[in-house]
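Hi V.,

Quick status before I head out on leave. The structure for the redesign project is tokenized and pasted below; the design run finished overnight.
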């Protein structure tokens, strides 16, 4: 006796219903706004030192308040928080100028461990910064903070520094996030070159 059974035929209506469902699901997903996913598709990475460990910077480009001028943002984690540090064209030009001065002083052994003004030696600038406890929900609207380019010694090693003074939130979601805290990003020469080159990738 032959126990072999022919497979059941799939009805055309079932196939049509499956295709229609898949089509609508795909379009619903595409219609949703996933800003972080879009950012991750166009981001570049670099590294810095926060005084305790090497951390990663996620660099992406976006429109500031939907204007025609695009800016680069460096996103990083430090001191239990996530930060967005904005780099306008002017700030990026100042960064490259500061980096050139630092590299020259490094090569010519002009970096001083005793200098009290080393942290601001290569100029000050006005920074825009955001902060929060998670990448996807930065708690604060972009705030202006005083920042500077310079250098700092950790033990016997010099690092190029970007220091940002604490900024005050207008409407903090909690007392713990009322201020951004003082932030400092430290770079070796190689890390600094990588950071600048990754921002320049967006310029080309």
């Amino acid at each position: 006796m032959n126990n072999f059974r022919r497979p059941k035929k799939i009805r055309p209506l079932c196939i049509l219903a499956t295709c229609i469902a898949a089509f609508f699901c795909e379009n619903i997903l595409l219609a949703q706004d996933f800003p972080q996913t879009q950012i991750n598709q166009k981001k570049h990475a670099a590294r810095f030192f926060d005084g305790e460990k090497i951390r990663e910077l996620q660099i992406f480009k976006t429109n500031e308040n939907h204007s025609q001028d695009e800016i680069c943002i460096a996103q990083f984690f430090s001191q239990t928080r996530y930060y967005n540090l904005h780099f306008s064209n002017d700030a990026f030009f100042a960064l490259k100028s500061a980096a050139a001065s630092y590299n020259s002083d490094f090569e010519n052994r002009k970096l001083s461990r005793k200098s009290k003004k080393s942290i601001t030696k290569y100029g000050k600038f006005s920074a825009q910064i955001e902060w929060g406890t998670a990448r996807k929900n930065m708690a604060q609207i972009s705030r202006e903070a005083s920042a500077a380019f310079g250098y700092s010694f950790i033990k016997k090693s010099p690092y190029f520094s970007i220091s940002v003074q604490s900024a005050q939130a207008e409407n903090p979601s909690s007392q713990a996030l009322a201020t951004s805290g003082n932030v400092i990003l430290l770079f070796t020469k190689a890390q600094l070159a990588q950071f600048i080159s990754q921002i320049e990738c967006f310029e080309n």
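Above is the designed sequence. The first strand starts at residue 44 and ends at 49.

G. will cover questions while I'm gone.

Best,
W.
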